[in-house]
Amino acid sequence: MFRSAFLSIRGRSKPAVNQLQRLDPSKRCLYRGYAKSTRQSSERSNSHELQSEMHPSTKTTNYKPLMALAIPVALLGLAGYARYNDERRAIQKGEGSREGMTVKGPIIGGPFELINTDHQIVTERDLHGHWVLLYFGYTSSPDIGPEEVQKMAKAIDILESKHNVKLLPVFVTIDPQRDSPQQLKRYLGEFDPRIVGLTGSVNSIRQIAQEYRIFFKKVEEDGSDYLIESSHNMYLISPNMEIMRCFGVEYNATELADAIGKELKMQSGSS
Fold it and tell me: Which has the closest alpha carbon to 221: 171, 182, 178, 188?
């Protein structure tokens, strides 16, 4: 990241350097000299040599152009550091490892108010007291989305049968314009009716996506037909609404269930 920030600073510094060169009097004289005749250039050179002999040259430094260059570079450096610091906290698209990610604390997550498939209002308070597996997707997803929902459903079965653990699976749509409560109910029912589907207004979905650091945007739009590019992280949330782990698409259902079971056992042992 620091390397990309350095290249960005170096690339943005070039226009400032060119501007500094244009402000330098010697460069202006040199540029203007090209438009003069050879005779005029020679006379100016001879005159300059004569003045140099009569008055010893004193080198002065004009700090104003240097300050004009230094200030934007310093501001850019601060902006790069702030972005780096934010990226360290946020869950970025494609990140994740076989060991999962620990994302404890209030950095990710927050209050929300959405609607379930029975048209009932659901807030973050309704999830308190449950271990939750949270996923953001949309019902029109052609490939990764259905695979992730299927993985969620299988992991729940494995957790109940192998680890004797009950988890509350929650699916939040990122396509509220097409995913009505009825649509969500039909879609999730094909995988597992235990999965809680949540939708809401466009602003409500944007808010919860920002709180949980979920990236998404419409692509390949053709009227009302479009796809959505998004991150595909699953969050394991504690009964206190703390995010304990983040799982990427590289996990299969068995690995996901085993990692969750291990985390829950570790948490119960420490409590």
Answer: 178
Q: Which is nearest to 209 in space by CA: 189, 183, 191, 235?
A: 235
Instruction: Answer whether 0.85 is exceeded by the pTM.
Output: no
What amino acid occupies position 95? E
Which two three-digit tokens encode residue 184?
Answer: 């969500």
Alpha-carbon distance 45 to 41, whole Å?
A: 6
SS3 content of the chain, % helix, strand, coil (to 5): 50, 15, 35
**Residue closest to 136 by CA, chosen among 18, 35, 246:** 246
Residue 96 tokens, joined: 């994740």
Longest alpha-carbon distance in the chain: 99
Share of the chain above pLDDT 70, in %: 60
pLDDT one-digit tens code per residue, 194-204: 999 999 999 99
Q: Within 10 A of 48 (CB to CB), how many other CB atoms are there?
A: 11
Residues 6+ apart with CB under 8 A from 211: 108, 109, 110, 111, 112
C-alpha 244/C-alpha 193 separation (Å) is 25
Residue 226's CB is within 10 A of a number of other CB atoms, namely 15
Residues 168 and 159: their CA atoms lie apart, in Å, by 11
- List pLDDT tens digits, range 231-254: 888 999 999 999 999 999 999 999
